[in-house]
Design a protein that fits this description.
226 residues; alpha/beta; Rossmann fold; 9-stranded mixed beta sheet; two-stranded antiparallel sheet; 5 helices; 11 strands; PRibForGlyAmidine_synth_PurQ
Length: 226
């Protein structure tokens, strides 16, 4: 049976179709999920995609966190459901307290869009197992509120527990503390990052590389071998 991966669409989401395509290219079945529906349609994993949910009013991800679908996502993520948050999805995961810390406006106060080099710091999560520890990849980045912050205790704990999943290389595009581009929860089933792996799955588009595809092949292998 093909693994089924849900992609949640909120008002203001703009990368849901790209994410569905990436899932399909990896060999899984994408399942469209609507923010007002609590039913996850028995999917095996969930992706919270990029965009500007609810126009980023109040704070990026702050309103989306209270959408009906998130009640179920939060409950099932805590029970082990794999969840990936990309850009706005990462912001939503921090607002939902599935991941620690918070996302603030870029330190230069401008929207940024560029190909971004990253280093894989944790290749043992449900979403990163097809990478190698220390591998350097290039993935598109586009955000206005991408600055990851947390108190020193939380940052030290993330580092000590190996929960920094990705780190910016060569250039910190938004002022994120300790160059953090993505993190994972303790169990490794929830991962959030600001860059967009769904835009780096085919040579024809994005960076012209397929450095983002292992996110989706990783979870497919995890689900097939479960």
């Amino acid at each position: 049976m093909t693994a089924r991966i849900g992609v949640v669409t909120f008002p203001g989401s703009l990368d849901d179709r790209d994410t569905q395509r990436a899932i399909r290219l990896a060999g899984a079945e994408p399942v469209a999920l609507w923010h007002k529906d609590k039913d996850l349609k028995q999917v095996d994993a969930v992706v919270l995609c990029g965009g500007f949910s609810y126009g980023d009013y109040l704070r990026a991800g702050a309103i989306a966190r209270f959408s009906p679908v998130m009640d179920t996502v939060i409950e099932q993520a805590r029970a082990g459901l794999p969840v990936l948050g990309i850009c706005n999805g990462f912001q939503i995961l921090t607002e939902a307290h599935l991941l620690p810390g918070a996302m603030l406006g870029n330190d230069h106060l401008h929207f940024i869009c560029r190909d971004q080099k990253l280093r894989v710091e944790n290749a043992s999560t449900a979403w990163t197992s097809d990478y190698e520890q220390g591998q350097e990849i290039s993935i598109p980045l586009k955000n206005m509120d991408g600055r990851y912050v947390a108190d020193e205790y939380t940052l030290d704990k993330l580092e000590a527990e190996g929960r920094v999943a990705f780190r910016y290389l060569d250039f910190n595009p938004n002022g994120s503390l300790r160059d953090i581009a993505g993190i994972t929860n303790e169990a490794g089933n929830v991962v959030g990052l600001m860059p967009h792996p769904e835009h780096a799955v085919e040579p024809l588009i994005g960076t012209g590389r397929t450095d983002g595809l292992p996110f989706f092949t990783s979870i497919l292998k995890k689900l097939v071998n479960a």
